[in-house]
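Fold it.
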Amino acid sequence: MMNGNSLKKLGTFGQSIWLDYIRRDLIVSGKLRRLIEEDGLQGMTSNPTIFEKAIVGSQEYDQDIRAMALGGKGVNAIYEALSQGDVQRAADEFRPVYDKTAGHDGYVSLEVNPHLAHDTKGTVEEAHRLWKTLARPNVFIKVPATTEGLPAIQALISEGINVNVTLLFGLPRYRQVADAYLAGLAARAAHGNPLNHVASVASFFVSRIDSLIDPLLEKIIVQGGKKADLAKQVRGQVAIANAKMAYQIYKEIFCSDRFKELAAQGARAQRLLWASTSTKNPGESDVKYVEALIGPDTVNTTPLETLDAYRDHGHPNARIEHGVAEARNVLERLPDLGISLDHVTQQLAGCGKTLAFFCLLG
């Protein structure tokens, strides 16, 4: 392994490793810089839940919170000031990565208010505000892959705002997300604007699918009968199979003539980002969702625990295209078990839409 570090070797297979975590002490202590320099960390993602845990679970923010509260600021204003400040600091730490990779990596993500998931106009307006406030070229504005989010993604890309498409679970919706990205690039090109500095990732959530489907399979296995053996075969395999098929769609779309015309004008592919890659089942490997999805032009964002585990006992190899036929078969057999993957992914997306800001002071 490269210098004995499995994390650094991921880059040799074309995958960037990002951190799904942010907290002020990680930045000010120098630990984030060490992760960048020693582990080859290439970026960072965040969400309101991560910030809630960071702010409530650390004394780093207490002084600022008291000062802003005494100054008359409300909860949302305080949350925004703290989260935006952390993202700006982290983006500055990653700026050398962004410059060295010519904008391929080095990004930090901040999410629009989840309450706007069904509001196209509101999402676009908030994304504009966040982009202007953050004032960093190496940030992503996270926009949910809802029906209303799709036109927002297209509009923001056309305006040159980097977008991390989040809460993406299903293959049909992924095609729509990629189409929105390409349509945004085409609109931007049609107005004579440059494409080479516009970046986007499509964050495909992985382990949550198994967390929802595996209990259904367990019930079938307990009942016994003809379906029990099939349920045993696909248990724990659906999320990875779904991601592998998403990668096949990615190759199809970004090898198409439609994209090649845009690439000739400087456009970048919208990389797939594997999110929710910590293992939820304690009986399975804690690096299961990292190992299986290594491949070119992908990103994996992990929490600190998974990052540490992979550094310790990961075995990097390009596996994203291993067993594609088997992955397709896993998905095709689900209806035989009475399970609709489309229904499951729609259910998961629906859960994501109900996210709300936490009361950070309570």
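Residues 353-362 have pLDDT under 50 and may be disordered.
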